[in-house]
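Lab meeting, action items carried over

1. Structure of the two-component assembly. Owner: GW. Status: complete.
Input record:
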Amino acid sequence: AQSVTQPDIHITVSEGASLELRCNYSYGATPYLFWYVQSPGQGLQLLLKYFSGDTLVQGIKGFEAEFKRSQSSFNLRKPSVHWSDAAEYFCAVASNTDKLIFGTGTRLQVFP
Amino acid sequence: GAVVSQHPSWVICKSGTSVKIECRSLDFQATTMFWYRQFPKQSLMLMATSNEGSKATYEQGVEKDKFLINHASLTLSTLTVTSAHPEDSSFYICSASAPGRSSSYEQYFGPGTRLTVT
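Predicted assembly:
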């Protein structure tokens, strides 16, 4: 069965520091992978997605993610975090039935 | 583009009453819409998938008689919580997909509806 694991429930970084949020997936075929961000009380905004091709994917707000098939990972990175990046981040994989399977999320806190 | 709206953004209702939440795709036709439920500080739980003109497909454990879903047109899906109880209080989020626009696997999310049952 497909699944997504986000090992880090809560991460705290200083503003300007680099960031990496981990995501591991379990899926038999080539996965379609997504990263979403959710601010408190809001819906989800798509940061980036991977369907095929270049394994390093650029997204909005300066985020990028790298698909590593050998590690079943799709980690999200940002070289310099801004206070406005504080939010909940969800990794997701699309199943073969068009459903999205979400990880449990990582809450990012940014200190000034 | 690919904007999904929800109405209302928040609603308070009394126990035993029903409440309807609307989900609209504003600038595209959504062949499939999804309804999620999210508890505080938790991930999204898929409740059901609806296709225009068809009966919704509910996930295991979701009461279809309690959570009525109607996908009457390619731009509108509604979720009705019938005989609501305090344990139904939650954040409900809809999403829509549109094959041909990008990928059938990409979903566009609404801003969510906060339901509080007193």
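2. GW to write a short summary for the group page. Key points so far: Residues 60 and 86 of chain B are 21 Å apart (CA to CA). The interface with chain A takes residues 4, 6, 32, 34, 41-44, 46, 49, 91, 93, 95, 97, 103-112, 114 of chain B (CB under 8 Å).
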